[in-house]
Each structure stands twice: as C-alpha cells, then as structure tokens.
Design a protein that fits this description.
311 residues; alpha/beta; 5-stranded mixed beta sheet; 59% helix
Length: 311
C-alpha cells in the first residue's frame, strides 16, 4: 500500500510538507501531510512519547520517498515543538523550516492576557478595609468609594480583556481601553507591544524587515521591567523562526493541513471504537488514507450516475 499510495499522493506534490505529532492517550501519532493538497503522505503510531529518533525516522522515510520520485522538498512547517528542529537539521539541513505563526501568536496572546490577569490581582490586593455598618466618618466613606472604584476597574479589565489582543481598535475601543487602564501604565505598554506583533506576520512584508522590528520590540521588553519577564519568553528565537514564510510566497504560514487531518481522525475515533491499540490505530489510518486515494474515482462515479439518472 505504501508504494501505491505514495505514487498517488506525490503525483502532484506541492513540495511543502507539514509535520506534527499528536497524542492520543497513551499513544502518539506522527504525521507528514502535503500542506497544499491536504494529502497525508506518511504516518507512524508510537506507544510512547516521541523522541528525536522517532521523528528522524519518519523524516528519513519521507526523504527516501521523495528521492525515489525525483521530488525536491521546498519547505517544512511544524507547530513549534522543541523536538522538531534537531531532526529537521539532520535530515533536511538545507530546507527552510517554518514554525507555525498561529501557534506563536497564540502563546503571545496568552502571555498578554496573563499580564492583564496579574494586574487585576494587583488591583484586588489594593482594596482598602471598609468597616461594617453605616459609613459615618469621612475616612470610611473615602475607603468605600476607593474600594468600589477598584472593583469596577477590575471588572472592566475582565470584560474588555479581549481589546488588549485585538488587531485593530476603533476610536471608541481606544477610549474604553484608555479609561480602564487609568493608573496602570504597564498595561498600556503591553497593548502597544501587542499592536506591533500582528503586523510582523503580514504577507506584504519581508523577513528581514520583520526581524528588525522584532529586535526593536525585544529592546523595549528589556526596558519594561514590570511585565517584561512575562513576555520575554514568548519573544524567543521560535518567534523569529515563524517569520520564514515572508520571503517564500508558496510556503504556508502554519501547519493547518496536518491539524485538519488530526481533527478528522479524532472525530472518527469517537464514532468507531473506544478501545485502541497501536495496531488498530495504524489500520484505521491506513484505511482512511486508502479511502482518500479512492475519493476521486468515487466522485466521478457518483457524478456519472447522477448525470445518467437526470437524463
């Protein structure tokens, strides 16, 4: 099956491959998918956590299949796993490696929202102690007003936290963001940094220009002591690796193809069976790949039948 299926899958190969690992309980599934045609090329099922050797073995199988059919790999897209760079450098040392931009931006968004949540906790810790009963003294009334104001500001930060990660803000949204961050200059800086992250992945730009902008952002983070540590980890070299696609218009920015295949597999798993073994998972993947190879013929047959019935 491997030979026949690969002959069909690589007949119109785009040259761009998405590779990823996905855990299914005690098992792990490695996949290599054509990033343009959404065809699963190779897969492997493991009964343990993946290692560099497992990924290297799958990549070598892919390299052998491509060389046997005189194909050249133009780019590899991964989800940003720490297991991928070393095997890719060993097997495909001269092939561009693109880290999924969606995964990198998602981690930056999480870091920004974490900074907003930390600011809310800081506001909650500043709530003054208000005595029970009627506020008769001026100090008690002032403490009650301050507590109410801080509580309203914390609730507004929770309600409008999505505005800190929105790409484009309207004039009204900017005013709202300016109002709820009054007295919190660190959150305004976080929003300013996030506003410069999204344009990094604009297809109209170039990799070197985006890297220069990224260098400027890193300098700003070094000066930003209050919330800088939260974001510094997300501005690691992985983010720089996610900008490779800007100079290659045919290289996808993220590994959607392999993730779509994983979602289809998970959906079928729920309806087919519950007890799983590596052999059953491998057989299920082989059946799905074979049905995918026969799909074009089935569509032609159905179209011919519908045409004959309509005539």
């Amino acid at each position: 099956m491997d030979t026949d299926f690969l002959d069909w899958a690589l007949a119109d190969c785009s040259g761009s491959v998405a590779a990823d690992e996905w855990s299914d309980g005690p098992f792990c599934m490695l996949s290599a998918v054509d990033n343009r045609c959404d065809k699963r090329l190779l897969s492997d099922v493991l009964d343990h956590d993946p290692t560099h050797d497992d990924i290297r073995t799958l990549l070598r199988r892919l390299k052998t299949a491509l060389q046997a059919r005189n194909f050249t790999l133009l780019g590899v897209t991964t989800a940003g796993s720490s297991l991928s760079p070393e095997p890719l450098a060993a097997v495909f040392d001269d092939v561009p490696h693109q880290v999924g931009a969606l995964h990198v931006v998602k981690e930056v968004v999480k870091a920004v929202l974490r900074a907003v949540a930390s600011a809310r906790k800081t506001l909650a810790a500043k709530h003054p102690t208000v005595p029970k009963g009627r506020r008769r003294t001026q100090a008690a009334k002032q403490a009650a007003r301050q507590k109410q104001r801080l509580a309203q500001q914390g609730a507004a930060l929770c309600t409008h936290r999505y505005r800190f990660v929105t790409h484009h803000l309207s004039q009204r949204a900017r005013k709202t963001l300016w109002r709820i961050t009054r007295g919190l200059p660190q959150l305004r800086k976080v929003r300013a940094i996030m506003a410069q992250v999204s344009p990094l992945f604009d297809r109209r730009g170039r990799t070197q220009t985006a890297r220069d902008t990224l260098t400027t952002l890193r300098r700003r983070l070094n000066r930003f002591q209050q919330r800088g540590e939260t974001l510094k980890k997300r501005f690691s070299p992985t983010l720089e690796q996610a900008l490779t696609f800007l100079d290659d218009k045919l290289l996808p920015s993220t590994s959607h193809a392999v993730e779509r295949g994983n979602r289809r597999y998970r959906k079928r798993q729920k309806h087919v069976y519950r007890v799983r073994t590596p052999e059953q998972i491998s057989a299920r993947l082989a059946l799905d790949m074979w049905r995918e190879a026969q799909a074009e013929g089935r569509h032609q047959t159905l179209a011919s039948l519908h045409h004959a019935l309509a005539g």
